[in-house]
Amino acid sequence: MAITSGGLQKFKQALINLLLEGRYTMNGKTYSTPIFKTSIDGDNVNVYLYLDDSVSGNITQVQLIDRDGAVFDTQTENINKPSINGLLITFTYNLKKVV
Predict the structure, then answer these.
(1) For residues 94 and 4, what is the distance between their CA atoms, to the nearest angstrom?
(2) Are 90 and 22 within 8 A, CB to CB?
(3) Residue 28 to residue 82: CA distance in whole angstroms
(4) How confident is the model at residue 74 (pLDDT cuts 50, 70, 90)?
(5) What is the DSSP letter of 85?
(6) Tell me, what's the pLDDT at 1?
(7) CA distances from 42 to 25, 54, 80 (A)
(8) Where are the domains positioned within the chain?
């Protein structure tokens, strides 16, 4: 038996539903931020975090946190974010059926 396209779509949505928030480390301190947006685009599941212009400093790590409070994914960064710009951070997962 094979997973159906509807089953694969539910699997992608389940991944999104598993996630609670984002965290980022800036200047050595960790901060929480809500998930800004999610999307399913073909085989890709995209999770976006947005840091507005009230956030400024050196960002060294970005994480996604699951509903159990555990780290789901971590990205190491080296971003010097000024206060004059926002920053959109994207986590992308490619989920597709392999035959």
Answers:
(1) 17
(2) no
(3) 16
(4) very high
(5) S
(6) 59
(7) 31, 34, 32
(8) 5-94
What is the SS3 assignment for 86?
coil
Amino acid, single-letter form, for residue 52: D
**Residue 76 pLDDT greater than 90, yes or no:** yes
Scored b (16 or more CB within 10 A) or e, 73-82 reads eeeebeeebe
Percent of the chain at pLDDT > 90 equals 89
Residue 93 has which token pair? 């997962």
Provide CB contacts within 8 A for 86, sequence distance 6+: 50, 51, 52, 53
Rounded distance, CA 87 to CA 73, Å?
19
Burial 29-52 (b: 16+ CB within 10 A, else e): eeeebebbebeeeeeebebebebe
The two tokens of residue 73 are: 């994914």
CA distance 26 to 62: 9
